[in-house]
Design goal:
The chain has twelve helices and 17 strands. The protein is an alpha/beta fold and 396 residues long. It is globular and about 65 Å long.
């Protein structure tokens, strides 16, 4: 995962300006700083729209943006897409030379595998309910409470036959994404499902920690034509419970060194909940920037250490999803076939149907799905999950 174009643009800007700032001092801004710092690009500080009392971040000053706009400055935007349009407008209104502004957050978004989500139907697969990785910044408790609320014996593990039904009930051009709301390989048949999806000619995405995965499974995995893979690695703080066994380290090294059939790296994106485990960092080396942005999952996670929307979007505002645009192209299938709106819906607020019982296009054309779509186009229901989601964007 390289940021060559970003680095090229930033180096050009740095030569043409007297000061270089990152706009945004949150998780995206910090990730951009780490990318630039690792590539020996010096930053003069972080700038923000309003004073939040931070003072400094990562040893650099946090400065109110409009106090530097009159100078010959270069700006690297380090924000999620929810805020970029408004900030770009604000910068332009203050007569900053826009040739000296680059949207760094876009590079994180695109390398994070989200670009395809705006263009294609995608079915995320939660292969099992309940995740032993139990990341610090993941609302597993919210999901489990809701899932088993009315039936303590509800189906916990997706079967291979269930998955075959999903393939039959989704269009041939629908991306199959093994991620959802749990570690996919906690289901012992996950690799068989990935094989089936590949054999069916589907574009396959995989988001995994490789926690507890055997070396034989990893060997089989890297032989398959997986289109896109994110590797979530162990971290220094143990925020993700990934047993760091010798098998784990060997598996990380295998996927990091592996290549896809077209010569691209097998792993496309690497992230962690905080600074990565030191041995993992050595294995990854300079081949990847390890991203560390985390958020509150549309309010389902109550933790001020993560990114969150300060207040819900007002009723009546037309909104779209930075992740999947206005048509909400990616939904999540749970082990019993229940389809929820997206991978932010840990509280299962918007259940749209059951993919084992009906085909995907039928579900998308009626009921809860259409109600959500209507609300996003200017409705007034404040219970809409999207109003509290960091990835929602107000359409002007």
């Amino acid at each position: 995962m390289r940021f060559d174009k970003l680095l090229e643009d930033v180096r050009r800007i740095q030569k043409e300006t007297s000061k270089l700032y990152i706009y945004g001092a949150g998780f995206y801004g910090k990730d951009i700083y780490r990318v630039l710092n690792r590539n020996h690009i010096n930053i003069d500080g972080f700038i923000v729209t309003k004073d939040d009392g931070a003072g400094e971040v990562l040893g650099l000053p946090v400065i109110i943006a409009d106090t530097v706009f009159s100078d010959n400055v270069g700006i690297v935007i380090g924000l999620s897409e929810s805020y970029v349009d408004g900030v770009l407008k604000y910068i332009k209104e203050n007569n900053v030379n826009m040739n000296h502004v680059v949207n760094g957050g876009k590079y994180i978004t695109d390398t994070g595998g989200r670009k395809d989500l705006k263009e294609s139907l995608m079915m995320e697969i939660s292969t099992v309910m309940g995740c032993s990785v139990n990341c610090e910044f993941c609302p597993q408790d919210v999901l489990l409470k809701k899932y088993y609320e009315n039936d303590k014996h509800r189906q916990r593990v997706m079967t291979v036959e269930n998955f075959k039904t999903i393939l039959a009930h989704t269009p041939d051009d629908c991306i199959i994404d093994f991620s959802g709301m749990t570690e996919p390989f906690l289901n012992p048949h996950c690799i068989d499902m990935i094989q089936l999806a590949c054999d069916a000619g589907r574009r396959v995405y995989l988001f995994t920690t490789l926690s507890g995965v055997s070396e034989e499974t990893v060997e089989r995995l890297i032989s398959l034509p997986v289109y896109y893979m994110t590797l979530h690695v162990a971290d220094k703080m143990g925020y993700a419970y990934i047993p760091t066994t010798e098998t784990y380290y060997r598996n990380v090294e295998k996927v990091i060194k592996a290549k896809k059939k077209d010569g691209r790296p097998f792993v496309d994106f690497v992230n962690a909940q905080t600074d990565p485990d030191e041995r993992v960092a050595k294995i990854v080396g300079d081949d990847y920037e390890i991203m560390r942005s985390v958020q509150n999952r549309a309010g389902n996670l109550k933790d001020d250490r993560v990114q969150y929307r300060e207040k819900p979007i007002e009723a009546g505002k037309k909104i779209s999803c930075c992740f999947a645009e206005g048509d909400l192209l990616n939904n999540v299938a749970l082990p019993d076939g229940t389809l929820v709106l997206c991978n932010m819906d840990y509280g299962m607020r918007h259940v749209t149907g059951n993919i084992y019982e009906e085909d995907y296009l039928t579900i998308r054309g009626k009921g809860e799905f259409r109600r959500v779509w209507k609300e996003m186009n200017g409705g007034d229901d404040m219970d809409l999950l999207c109003r509290t989601c960091l990835l929602a964007r107000v359409e002007e």
